[in-house]
Specification:
134 residues; alpha+beta; Alpha-Beta Plaits; 4 helices
Length: 134
């Protein structure tokens, strides 16, 4: 059985673009080893991520993220069993939450800013799917 988990968090300190790329690269390799797929969205103030895979692997990865001192305000938004992966193309897809996504943020978040802590799980999943399709 597969599990899908969505969470939001904030960086505990400012991250340079190259630091974010290092995080994405590391997560991609680790997720590939654990047979996880997913998508990460980041702007300078927040992360939104979906993870898919075996329940144990998803749980272990989320627990590691929640303990990571680079994250604060970790919010578990949704954990559900699923029959299939929605983000199967990536071990870790990535999208920057920038001004180009303003229409999507408005559609899924109710305003033109990326604020995952204010989103419902359904709207977060919709935003992740829309960004993955670009």
């Amino acid at each position: 059985m597969l599990t899908r988990l969505i969470y939001a968090s904030e960086p505990s300190q400012p991250l340079a673009p190259e630091s974010v790329q290092t995080i994405v690269d590391h997560a991609s390799m680790a997720n590939e080893r654990s047979q996880l797929t997913g998508m990460l969205v980041f702007d300078s103030s927040a992360f939104l991520q979906v993870l898919e895979g075996r329940r144990e692997a998803v749980s272990e990865t989320f627990c590691r993220i929640a303990r990571d001192s680079r994250h604060r305000r970790v919010l578990l938004m949704d954990v559900v069993p699923v029959d299939e992966r929605l983000f199967s193309r990536w071990s870790m897809g990535f999208a920057a939450a920038d001004a180009q996504g303003r229409e999507l943020f408005l559609r899924f978040g109710g305003h033109g800013r990326f604020e995952p802590h204010a989103m419902t799980a359904a709207s977060a999943l919709g935003l992740l799917r829309a960004l993955a399709a670009h």
